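Risk register update: the risk that structure generation would not scale has been downgraded. Supporting records follow, first protein first.
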Amino acid sequence: MGRQGDGGIRLETDWVEYLSGHDMDWVVKPVSWDSGAFLGNGFVGAMAYGEEHASMRNTLRFVLGRTDVSAGSAGRTGFDPRVPVGEVHLRLEGWIYQPTSMRLDLWNAELRADITTTKGSVQLRAFVHSEMPVLCIELECSEEERGATIEWAAYSELDQVLKQADGINLNQPIPDTVVTRRTVDRIGVGIQRFESGQGCTTSWTEREGAEGRRSYWIAVVRGCEETDCAEAVRVVREASDLPGDRLVRSHRDWWYSYYRQSFVSIPDSRLESFYWIQMYKLASATRANAPLLDNIGPWLTTTPWPGAWFNMNVQMSYSPVYASNRLELGQSLIGALRRCREQLIANVPEAYRGDSAGLGRSSGLDLKSEVDDEVGNLTWICHSVWRHYRCSMDEELLRDLLYPLLRRSVNYYLHLLEEGEDGRLHLPPTISPEYGSFKRLQVADCHYDLALLRWGCETLLDSAERLGVEDERIGRWREVVERLAPLPTDDTGFRVGKDTPLAFGHRHFSHLLAVFPLHLIRCESSEEWELVNRSLRHWLGLEGDLRGFSFTGAASIAAALGQGELALQCLHTLLHLITPNTMYREAGPVIETPLAGAEAIHDMLLQSWGGVLRIFPAMPAQWRDTAFHELRAEGGFLVSAVREGGETRFVRVKSLAGESCFVRTDLTGRGAVRAVEANHGREDRSDRVAVEESGLIRLDICAGEDIVLYVGERVPDLAVRAVRPSEAPPIRNYFGGRTPWRQYGLGQGCRLSCQSRPPGEQV
C-alpha cells in the first residue's frame, strides 16, 4: 500500500493495482491510429498497430514521430509543417492471429504484448524512454518465430498501403526526401534530407540474448548533418550499453514520480480510466524542455493540421496541466513564447510593432503567423500562461514574460478600438472562431474579442499593482474596463456579436469565452446564472456542428453553473466521440479534445477562479463518494478533499505562497467549521477560520501552512483513498481496443503472462 503525504494528511493507494484497472487493453491486434497503443516522452513518439492488407498481416508497426521535425519551408499550410519520419516494423514469420493480446501498462509506461501468429508466438515489451529520445523493444520468440525481424523504413520508402492506412489527405505537405543509410560501429543509421535541406536522423541497434531473446534500441534526432548522425549514434550506444534493469528503472522512476504529483478518484469507472489515460498522454506528449504541444503531439499521421492552432487547440491541450499539479509540463508553452518573442511582434502589421504583438490562427514551432481578422489568439494564450502563474505564483514569470507579452497583445486591440455614438468603445468586425468559418464571417463587437480585451485589461491592472509598476497605459486600461461595449445578448443568451445572434449550430464556445475559461461572468448572481444557463441550453439545443470539444467546453460551463448532472452528460457524450484509444479525430487527428475532457473533470472537483477555492462544485447525484489529493489551485494552493455519502468529509488546503484564501464548501451548512494544522500534530487552528455571511470561509494561512477543515467533535480520518466504482461490476480496462461489451459486464479482459514479470526483468 503506497502512503504519501505530510503530517496528518496522507494518500493511501496501491498505485500498481489501482492503475492496472485503467490500463489500455487489446484482445485483438489494433489496425489503425484510432486504436493503436501510444508511447512518448514529449520529443519521440511511437504508435503501435498493425495492418489488415494481406501483404502486411505479419507486421506490427511502430509509427514513429518527432515533435521538432518539420519540412523546413512553408507548404500549402502557409507555415513550416510537421512531417512524418518513418516506422519500425516487427515482421513475423506467420500472420498475427488469435489469441493475440496487448496491454499498455500506465504505471510503468510500457506496452506489453503476447502475439500469436499462424506459426508461433512472440512476447514483446516496448517503451519510449522517459528521458532519452529512444524507443526500446524487447522480444522473446518461440522456435517457430526465431526468424522475426525488426526493420526501419523512412516514410518515403513505405508501401502505399501503409501510407494510406489512416486516410488520404491531399492537403498534407510531404517534402521530397533523399534517404541515406550507413553503419557506424554496428549501429544502423538512416539519414533523411528534405528538399529544404532540413531533415532527421534515425539510428538503431540490436542485441541477441539467450533463448530467443532480443533487444532493440531506436533513436530519432532532429537534423541530417554529420553532427546529428553522431548524436543519434551516441544516444543508441548509451542506451544499449546500460544494463537492462538500469535503463528500465530510470524510465519507470520518472513516471512513478510523475503520477504521484496528484490523485483523482471518481466512482465512474470509464471516466476515471479516461482521466488517468489523459494524465499518461499529457506527459507522453510534452515535457518541460520539449517543443510546443501542437495539434497532434509526437503521434503524427495523415492530417490537414500538421502544426499548432491557437484559436482553441493549444490552449485546450495545456488546460489540464494546472489543476493536476503538473506545472512542469506547461513550461514547454512558456519556453516557446520566450524563444519566439520577436516573431510574435513581427506577426502584427509593421505600423504596430513598436508596442504590439499577436498570433494568427496556425503556425509551426516558430510561431510565425500573421494576425488578420482573428485577433484574440495571443491574448487567450496569455490566459493559459496566467493560469500557470496563478497556480505557481512565480513572480519572475509574471514580470519577465507574461506582463510584457499581455501588454503588447492588449495594445494591438487598443489600436482597433473605436468610440461609438453611445460613448462606448467598440471593436470593428473580427472573426469569432469557427462561427461561419467557410464564409469568413466577421462580426462587430465580437464576444470572443470583447471578452479577451476586458480580461486582458483587468489582468494588466492587477499585475501592475502586484509588481509595483507605474505603467503609462494604466489610465487607458481603466478607461477600457469602464467604457468597453457590453457583451451582446438577446433572449437566447449571449450573441456571437453585436448584430449576430447564435442562429445555427456552432462547434466552438467562442461566444461563451467570458464564462469559460475567462470567468468574467461568474454565475454568482441569479441574473448571471440565468443568462449563462440560457446561453448554454440554447447552444446545445441547436446541435448542428457540435463536436467533441464542444462537449468539453459545455461540461466546464455546466460545472461553473454547479450543474453536475449536465456536466456528466456532456462528458459521457464525449466518450462516444473519442477513438477507442482515447484519441480524437475529425478531418484528421487532434489531441486537445480528450485532454480538455480531463480539465472538465477537474472543474467538477475543484474550481479556483476569482480568488475562491470551490470544493466539489458540480457533483452529480451518483458521485456520492469522490476524492482527490493535491490538486493545485490558483494562489499557489495544494488542495485535498474527500466526499463520502454525498457530503464533504474534510478539505485540506496547503499554502505554497502565502496568498489570501477563501473556500466554498458544503461543510458550512452542516455545523461549525473547525480547523487543524495537519502538519503540526493536528494542532487546533479554528481561530484561523471565519465564515462570512456569503458562506465563504476565509482562511488565515501562511506560506508552508497546512490546514484541514471539517465539522464535528473529532478530527476525521485524514486519508485519501480510491473510491468504490458505482457500477456493478466495475468497468475495467475499457479503453484501447474497441470493447463496448465491458460496459455491460461482459468479458473478463486479457491478463498477459508477461505482465507478472518483476520490474526491470528482461523479456
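Supporting record for the second protein:
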Amino acid sequence: MKSTRLLLPSLANYESKWLSRDVLAGIVLSALLVPQGMAYAELAGLPAVTGLYTSILCLIGYALVGPSRILVLGPDSSLGPMIAATVLPLMVADGDPTKAVVMASMLAILTGVIMIVSGLGGMGFIADLLSRPTILGYMNGLALTILVGQLPKLLGFSVDAEGFFPEVVGFVQGVVQGEAMPAAAAVGVFSLLLILILTRVMPRLPAVLVAAIAAIMLSVGFDLAGRGVPVVGALVQGLPHFSVPLMELQDIGVLFVGAVGISLVALADTIGTATVFAERQSERVDGNREMIGIGVANVAAGLFQGFPVSTSGSRTAVAERAGARTQVTGLIGAGMIALMLVAFPDLLADLPQATLGAIVIAASLSLADIGGMRRLYRQRRTDFIIGTAAFLGVVLLGVLPGIVVAVALSVAMVFKRIWRPYRATLGQVPGLPGLHDMTNYPDAQTLDGCVVLRFDAPLIFANAGALRDDVHEIADRNPQPLWIVIAAEPITDVDTTACDMLEDLTVELDEQGVRLVFAELKTSPRQKLEQYGLEHVLDSSRFYPTIRAATDDFRSTTGQEWTGQHQRD
C-alpha cells in the first residue's frame, strides 16, 4: 500500500525484522556507490570526491521524501555528459575545479527546483515527452559518446578535444603516436573485462567493487603509481559543508537550460526504473511524488558541493538483491561513505584512473540497446527512423542538443499523428458484430447512399482540414451519397477551428443534398459543440448513440439494404 506520509514515507509501518536486511543491503550498496560515484564525477568533469558528496546527500534527501521503498539515487552515467556539456563551456580557459563544482552545484539546485515545482504542479506526465524510440536512440548515442570519451583514460592518456569526431581522431592519433601507457592500458582493460565477465557470469556479485579491489591490489603490488600510471590519490578528508553556490545571472540562465534537459532525462529514467521495481512489489508509481523526491535529492546534493543525480537501475537491483526493504538502506549507504571520508580518506588512493574509465565504459555499454533498435526496425520503420535521428542528434550535435532533438522528435510524432490521423471507411462483415475497416475487409457490405467514416483523433485546428477534405471527397462521388456518418467515438475533443469548420461543412453539404450525422460522439465534445452554439446546424437529430442506430435509421428512411459480395442472410 502506498504511504501518505510526507517525511520518511518508506518507513511507514516499518517492521523491526527488516532492520538487519536494510543494514546489510546498505553496507553492500556503499561498496558499489563509492567507485561508481567517483567515476561518474570525473565523467562530469568534476573532482572524484564530489561524487561521494553527491551520493551521501542525495540518498539522505530522497529518503526524507521519496515515495519508493528501495529506489536508489546517485551520480549517473547518463547525466555525466550532460553536466559536463552544460558546465564546461562556462569555464572559459581557467579550468578552475572549484568554479566547476560551484556551477555543478547550482545546476543540481536548479534541476531540483524544476522537479519540485513540476511535481507540486502535477506535471509528472512530462516524462512521456520522451517516447521509447527516442529514448533508445538517445541512450545508444550517449553510450557511444561516453565510450569514445573514456577510451583515452582507459589506456592512460588524455585527449584535448570536444565533440565525437574530434575525440575519435584524437584517440587514434594518441594511440598511433605512442601516448598510451602499457601498464595503465593493462589494468584498465583487465578491469573492464572483469566487470563485463562477472556481470554476465555472476550477476549477483558486485562486479564494480571486485574490479576496484583487484585494481588496487595490482596497483600496490606492481607500484603502478611509481611507474607513472595515474591513480585517484588521497581524497579530501572530512564531510562536505553547507554552501550556497553563487554566480553571475547570465551563467544561471545557461545552467537553467541544461537543468531542464537533465530534469527530463532524470525523470524519464526514474519513472521507468520505479515502475519496474514497483511492479515486483505490487505497488504503484506516483510520478508527481517521484518528481518531488528527486528534486529534494538534487537540492540537497547542490547545497553540499554535489551535482545532479538520477535513479540507477543497477544500484537499485543490487539493493533489492541484498534484501533492502526501505530507504534505511540508502541511509546506511550514506553513513558508510561518510565514515570512509572521515576515517579512511586514503582507502582508494591507489585506485588507477584507468579502472575508473573502465567502470564508466561498462556503464555506457549497459546504456546501449542495439537489440531494441533492431526490434524497432522489424516492427515499425517510422519509429526506427526516429530512434536513428535521436542517435545521430547526440553523436553529431552533442549531448544537450541531442536531448532537444529527442524531445522535438517525440513531440513532432505526436503532432503528426494528430495532424494526419488514421481515417477509415467502415462496412458490415457477416458473422462479426459491429462495422469494420474496409481496408482490412475489402469485401465488407455497404449501404448504397450511405458512407460511414471513422476519424481516429481529437478534432482540432491541425486536422480539421483533413476531415473536411475527406468528407468533401465522399460527397463529390458519383453517385452522390445521401448520408455521411462520422463514426466519432475516437474524437475526444473539438476546438474552435474544428467547430467553425463543422458549421460551414454542414451548411455546404445540406446545399448539396447530403446529410452529415455523427455516431458515438462522447458527451464532452458534444457539449463543446453546444457551447459553441452550433444547435442551429447540428441539432439533436444528427447525433446517434451507436453506428448501428445511425445506419438502421438510414435504412428505415431510404429503404436501402446492405449489399456487397456477401449478401446478408
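The CA atoms of residues 454 and 516 lie 13 Å apart. On this basis the risk owner (M.S.) recommends closing the item.
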